[in-house]
């Protein structure tokens, strides 16, 4: 299916809204699970296992046209998958000790990390607006952290490590172009399948297994926990699918902007849902500054993209084939 056609204008809007909604919901669902079940690596392993089995079942039953595994494609995606899962694993670990507004604020540091990585890899200098917006975002995190009475060093460390791995993931995807020509379902399948050996090794090496499974069985008597856990597993699939779909149908820029706008809503709701936030003027001011920086960054990148699209260019054979 060709997503990049003008025949389906509503698909772009649907993809963006779906990703925004799924992303916002996933933060709160994961937080709710981790408040009762602290084994974040096991949770991620279960999410990826569920994704692999569901896509495999759909392919066997003919519900999806996703192609089977290809060794060459798998080799291209192996490190992409490892960095992606490292990002998610550390993000889940951070949610155990960091409240949702601060978690979202720290994750907004990813553009700053990408700019720094781009500088060392020889990329061109970004626009002044982009530089100022990411610096404002970083300043907001610093101010908010100073006013965070629930400061958790481990949680903060995990969140910053997650930002590092997310940056490496984005840079690697951009450099490799390994996801070209793959559908969103196929990317999900490769990502989840390739991550399983790595995740299984980690839960054994870190000592989560078998204690995590014993705890899981013990908590299975609680229907409310089982419902939240099942919702987490399902939403893990939905989030991955809508993220890849939004990127394919629209662009990576659109996915970034949707993520920032989603963060505004999540930050606001985070003060009222699931607790863990001790309101302080410095903390609130820092989060507001951080959010303003995030929105400014999205606006600056949109303007940059718009200017580039107006520049005349010679179409390559690949561009002609796509049209």
List the helices and strands and how they pair.
Elements: H1 9-34, H2 40-61, H3 71-95, H4 100-107, H5 110-120, H6 128-146, H7 153-176, H8 184-205, H9 211-219, H10 223-249, H11 252-270, H12 281-310, H13 317-322
Helix pairs in contact: 1-10, 1-11, 2-8, 2-10, 3-7, 3-8, 4-11, 5-7, 6-12, 8-10, 10-11, 11-12
Count of DSSP helices? 13
Q: Give the averaged pLDDT, no decimals.
A: 78
Distance N to C terminus: 13 Å
Instruction: Return Rg in Å.
Output: 20 Å
Helix content: over 70%
3D structure, described in words:
Residues 22-298 form the Sugar phosphate transporter domain. The chain crosses the membrane at residues 7-29, 35-57, 77-94, 100-120, 127-147, 153-172, 193-218, 224-245, 252-274, 280-300. It is a multi-pass membrane protein. InterPro entries: Sugar_P_trans_dom, TPT_transporter. This protein is mainly α and 323 residues long. Helix content is 77%, strand content 0%. It has 13 helices and no strands. The chain has helices at 9-34, 40-61, 71-95, 100-107, 110-120, 128-146, 153-176, 184-205, 211-219, 223-249, 252-270, 281-310, 317-322. Helix 1 runs antiparallel to helix 10 (223-249), helix 5 crosses helix 7 and helix 10 runs antiparallel to helix 11 (252-270). The longest helix has 30 residues, at 281-310. The two termini are 13 Å apart. The model is unreliable at 1-7 and 313-323 (pLDDT under 50).
Please describe the structure with a list of short key phrases separated by commas or semicolons:
323 residues, mainly alpha, transmembrane, membrane, transmembrane helix, Sugar_P_trans_dom, Sugar phosphate transporter domain-containing protein
């Amino acid at each position: 299916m060709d997503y990049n056609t003008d025949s389906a204008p509503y698909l772009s809007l649907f993809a963006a809204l779906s990703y925004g909604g799924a992303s916002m919901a996933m933060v709160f669902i994961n937080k709710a699970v981790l408040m009762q079940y602290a084994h974040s690596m096991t949770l991620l392993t279960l999410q990826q296992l569920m994704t692999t089995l569901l896509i495999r079942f759909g392919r066997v039953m003919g519900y999806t046209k996703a192609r089977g595994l290809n060794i060459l494609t798998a080799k291209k995606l192996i490190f992409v998958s490892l960095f992606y899962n490292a990002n998610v694993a550390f993000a889940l670990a951070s949610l155990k000790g960091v409240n949702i507004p601060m978690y979202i604020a720290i994750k907004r540091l990813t553009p700053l990390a990408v700019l720094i990585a781009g500088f060392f890899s020889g990329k061109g200098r970004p626009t002044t607006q982009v530089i100022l917006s990411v610096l404002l975002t970083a300043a907001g995190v610093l101010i908010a952290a100073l006013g965070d009475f629930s400061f958790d060093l481990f949680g903060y460390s995990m969140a910053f490590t997650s930002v590092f791995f997310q940056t490496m993931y984005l840079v690697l995807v951009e450099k490799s172009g390994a996801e070209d020509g793959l559908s969103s379902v196929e990317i999900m399948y490769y990502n989840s399948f390739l991550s399983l050996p790595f995740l299984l090794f980690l839960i054994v090496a870190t000592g989560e297994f078998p204690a995590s499974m014993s705890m899981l069985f013990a908590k299975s008597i609680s229907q409310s926990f089982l419902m939240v856990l099942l919702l987490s597993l399902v939403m893990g699939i939905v989030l991955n699918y809508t993220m890849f779909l939004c990127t394919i149908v629209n662009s990576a820029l659109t996915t970034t902007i949707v993520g920032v706008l989603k963060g505004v809503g999540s930050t606001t709701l985070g003060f009222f849902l699931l607790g863990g936030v001790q309101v302080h003027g410095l903390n609130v001011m820092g989060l507001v500054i951080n959010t303003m920086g995030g929105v400014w960054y999205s606006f600056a990148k949109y303007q940059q993209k718009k200017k580039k699209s107006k520049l005349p260019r010679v179409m390559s054979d690949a561009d002609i084939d796509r049209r």
